[in-house]
Amino acid sequence: MLNLAEQFLAESVKRGDKKSYEYLFKSYYSNLCKYARNIVHNETTAEDLVMDIFVRIWESPEKLMISTSISGYLYQCVHNHCINYLTRKHKQFSELNAETIDKLHALIPQDSSSDPLTGINIIELSRRIERSIELLPVECRKIFILSRSEELSHKEIALKLGISENTVKVQIYRALIKLHILLKEFLQN
Amino acid sequence: MKEKNISDSLTEAIVDYYTNNLTQAQSEELLEWLGENDENRQYLFELGKVWYASSQLSTKEKDTNGAWANLLDKIKENDIRQMPKPELRIGLSFLFRVAAAVLLLAVIGIGTIFIFRSPKTKSEIAYFEAFAPKGSRSFITLSDGSTVWLNSGTKLRYQSNFGKEDRDLFLEGEAYFVVARNPDMPFRVKTSDVCITAIGTAFNVKAYNDEGSIETTLEKGEVRIDALDDSKLKVESTPVFLKPNQKAVFIKSNKNISVNSSVQQPQVAVNEPAGKIKTIPLSIENMADTKLTTSWKDSRWIFKSEKLISLKPILERRYDISIIFRDSVLMSYKFTGTLKEESLEQVLNAICLASPIKYEINHNQVLFFEAGSVKSQYRKPLKTN
């Protein structure tokens, strides 16, 4: 599955080659931070969690198990690390009680076999989303872009557009559904 | 996947689930819906793919080169930590041989100090690191005569020329400083977000990476606190000055907030922000007794109506264990007391004596549970019969 360039990169990182490791880091760091920030909603924490993954790779490169793609592997590591972090932190600080958090996690597929990223090239999917956004209704598109590209909170979007937070959420939900329908073929592969 | 006809409140709950903003009521509604069938669970999961992937649309790019430099630092530190013991001894003898600027005086209790010389750097400036591992505390004397107590899980880094040109230290964790007076050379402690400057004074700084705040408590003298910019080098705010028996709390998540209303103006000299200079988001508390904060260094540990959840990180570091609460209600139980060189078991027994709590130790894990909950476990099988 890996193309030649990726194979080569993965192999050199496994051998502990620092230049390749640097290349890997610099190619993915910024995007992985966006991904982590989207889950943990804190800039510094997101950076730390992504850093952890790279420190781990440096310390035991032989454990690098890349089966589908390097990006798939990295995103999956970051995803799992973020979810673990949230589960731990949430039990301490969230207004949800610990029991509710456990229940939520038990009901929503979390294991790697049903990870949202398995078998999906996230970078390719995000490119397709970007193109498909054009097909959303104007208002819906505007709200989705403010939320996803500019990372405004629902509250900030509501204030900016003079609408209610509920409307913002409903529009984001609609955008997700429309995009899912538009990208159905890609998502089912 | 077909579009589902769901209520507005459920729609909101789904979006709030992705953004991590669920309220208790919403989560209950969501749980009920998810529990109905697999289809609903799959639905949330499928939409999640679009949600997670769309995070990549963000236009905020990170400073990759700066992050790479940080990562290199981290890797070095960790490599050092993993060094086998014999090499550490070589490090120490090397230290004495070069008659480095640092004097190691004493190690108290089971505390250990590791001093390292980092691999040669271009500028030939060596870094030393004193490290008190989890489960122990340490004490060092610096070349300028200042003394430092390191609490469990604390790292203190400084350059080999400490005391010659400057007195700069980098702290990760908790330390108590008694600073030798030298008006010509300020003594500066840098943490992840703030820099504490002293001339001659005694103060405590708590700046663990896994805690949300940085606390500075002043016992004697005067210190000033500045916010550090992202490079950890430059100061970018109007300073805050502390007086004895005051504690300044910096909340890391408020980093980007420029004004803080909880600063009590009469007690603190805060210069008027000139132009765009930021004020640090610090809150100042007056303390009746700083012993509560600094007692850890005397192998005595005083606490006053502290919740068990806030004792958790302290116990975890002090005894190198991890604590799990089976019953979340225990987290808010409050404890007052003084502990002196007690073993872990003695501390746990003291906690359990004072409240309806029981514990189990399994390797390095301590499980706390409600004493009464044993009963409810027995009750269950009876009911099902």
Q: What is the makeup of the main sheet of chain A?
A: none
Task: Count every beta strand of chain A, where a strand is a DSSP E run of 2 or more residues.
Answer: 0
Strand content of chain A: under 5%
Overall pLDDT score of chain B: 73
Largest sheet of chain B: 14 strands, mixed
Low-pLDDT runs of chain A:
110-116
**What structural category do the secondary elements of chain A indicate?**
mainly alpha
Based on the coordinates given, report the CATH architecture of the largest domain in chain B.
Sandwich
Rg value of chain B: 25 Å
How many helices of chain A does DSSP assign? 10
Number of DSSP strands of chain B? 21
Span between N and C termini of chain A?
14 Å
Can you characterise this structure?
The complex is a heterodimer of chains A (189) and B (385). Chain A has 189 residues and is an all-alpha fold. Chain A has helices spanning 4-14, 18-40, 43-59, 70-93, 98-107, 122-132, 138-148, 154-161, 165-182, 184-188. In chain A, helix 2 packs antiparallel against helix 3 and helix 3 packs across helix 4 (70-93). Chain B is an alpha+beta fold. In chain B, strands 1, 2, 3, 4, 5, 6, 7, 8, 9, 10, 11, 13, 14 and 16 form a 14-stranded mixed beta sheet that branches. In chain B, strands 18-21-20 form a three-stranded mixed beta sheet, covered by helices on one side. The longest helix of chain B has 18 residues, at 64-81. Chain B is globular and about 75 Å long. Classes of the chains: A mainly alpha (189), B alpha+beta (385). Chains A and B meet through helix 2, helix 3, helix 4, helix 5 and helix 6 of A and helix 1, helix 2, helix 3 and helix 4 of B.
